[in-house]
Amino acid sequence: MTKKIKCTVVKAFNNNVILVKRKDNKKEEVLVGKGIAFGKKEGAAIKLDPEKIEKSFVTYGEKFEKEYFSLIDEMDGEIIRVCEEIISIAEENLGQLNQHIHIALTDHVSFARERMESDMVIEFPFLEEIKILYKDEYKVAVKALEILNNKLDTKLPEDEIGFITMHFYAARENTNVRNTYRNVSLINELIDIIQDELNIELDPGDSNYIRLVNHLHFSIERVNNNIDVQNPLIESIKSEFNQAYSVSDKLSEKIKSELDLEISEAEKGYMTIHLQRLNDVNSL
């Protein structure tokens, strides 16, 4: 027989979410499970069957507790339960995520369902880019959308895969979703500049497109993290591949205007080589 967990109810938020203080380690934990909090009163000493606990986590910090508890106080308990199931799957595949994912993802899903019920469509325009940049997070997001639609009996659109992917990536890298979206949007704009300047059309499914997206991403990451690169051939590159260098100059100006980051000559040189190769391939 499974040993039951002895604890005291601190607060029952809804039928599916409860905050308890465990008797064995004296720690407060949020427990999530279908009907786990039904009929539980604050201050009551209870024994819980571990098999009914779908998710448990310890909250850290007063700010997080205040935000999370405020959220679940007004949230549909089933959304919380399903989102916690998804977060568990994400952590199994992606590793430990920043605890803010418990707030961010749940709030996003609730709002997404409200939008859908009100016939408000918000498209995610960068699905191809994030599929390349954040492929592990993307795979989990595909599964997450399937779970949401099945268990919440809803029909959230494919665009939600993009938004959920960004939440996973932000939580994995301890950054915020706004920065992630901004960077993906910038890469999309840089690709538009490249296509216009080189008069080429790139296929998102092509290996050259994938290499380009990755190159732009890592260039921005290197500059953002102050990683210096050396390029002893920069003068030869500038003179030999004049058009491609001119395009890399325009890309650098765009990055500077959007992110206030200065692109080095060496980094421009590597961009130029990549653009020249791209131009050669598309000229065949």
Walkthrough of the structure:
With 284 residues, the protein is an alpha+beta fold. The chain folds into three domains: 1-58, Transcription Regulation, Sacy, Chain A (Roll); 60-175, Orthogonal Bundle (PTS-regulatory domain, PRD); 180-283, PRD domain (PTS-regulatory domain, PRD), CATH 1.10.1790.10. 60% of the residues lie in helices and 10% in strands. It is built from eleven helices and five strands, in the order βββββααααααααααα. It has a five-stranded antiparallel sheet. A hairpin with a 5-residue loop joins β2 (17-22) and β3. α3 runs antiparallel to α6 (159-173), α7 runs antiparallel to α10 (242-259) and α8 packs antiparallel against α11 (265-283). The chain is elongated. The protein starts with a strand and ends with a helix. The mean pLDDT is 89. GO terms for molecular function: RNA binding.
Please give the structural blueprint:
Blueprint: E1 5-14, E2 17-22, E3 28-32, E4 45-48, E5 55-57, H1 62-73, H2 77-94, H3 101-117, H4 127-133, H5 135-151, H6 159-173, H7 177-198, H8 207-224, H9 234-240, H10 242-259, H11 265-283
Antiparallel strand pairs: 1-2, 1-4, 2-3, 3-5
Helix pairs in contact: 2-3, 2-5, 3-6, 5-6, 6-7, 7-8, 7-10, 8-11, 9-10, 10-11
